[in-house]
Amino acid sequence: MAGDGATQVEHMSEEVKGESQDNTWGWLESTAHAADFCPTEDHAVVPHDTPMKEGYLLAAHCMIYALDDSVVFNLYCRRAAVLMHMRFDGYLGFPGGLVDTGEEIIPALNRELHEEMNLDLTRFQVKHEDHVISHENAKNRVICHFYALCVSLAEFEEIERAALASKEHGHEVLGHIRVPLYVMGDGYRGFPTFLDNNFCGNARSQLLTSLKQRNILPESIINAALAATKKYVPASS
Ligand SMILES: O=c1[nH]cnc2c1ncn2[C@H]1C[C@H](O)[C@@H](COP(=O)(O)OP(=O)(O)O)O1
Q1: I need a labelling partner for 164 at 20 to 30 A (CA). Which of 101, 115, 118, 120 fits?
Q2: 172 C-beta neighbours (distance < 10 Å), count
Q3: Mutate to test the pocket of ligand 1, among 1, 200, 209 (most ligand atoms within 8 A of CB)
């Protein structure tokens, strides 16, 4: 989180505190634009060492995952446990955040992973080789770097449990969630339904790219799930 939110709210006048409960942005205004949903056509792939641009924000996020070929409900292969979270603004996103002025990208990401996930940095750290993709999102004026950290299933479960004790749990992060990667009988529930949620910035595209790049889901299943989105069919019909 850029700035110390709690301290800033404490120092607000009563009038501003009232306003901030009344649909205004308050001190969150300076970064709110960067969280708008970003469709694929609005962001371009850029190199990891792309230079910063005047007026842009720099962000880094990470998908923590474990391969898991177990079967759920005796029906669906889980394929992987993939961690995302429900953010304070109601969007789904990945752990990570803004790179502060003067900070390097990867240390900033590891700092955010500790703040948001309580990640034990003596055991798990994102490294350069975990890089998946970087985007320039001109509409939201943000450069987003994305990484994927593969751990064992036992480590994943440990990380998930520890995350409940993170500094940001209940503040910036309202819940840690797993992504359902299977498609159910109606062709919609499961992964396609998940993709119909509201995602922060280009988080949805980061998810799809990582699933493909890390060979978690074949492109054909990703494309079929995308084609099924927004096509809710009642189970009884
Ligand atoms: O998961 C994400 N994928 C892509 N972009 C994201 C994601 N989550 C947030 N963002 C964008 C929009 C935000 O304004 C900036 C900074 O991220 P955030 O996690 O909110 O940063 P702080 O924790 O506030 O530093 O990136």
Answers
A1: 101
A2: 19
A3: 200
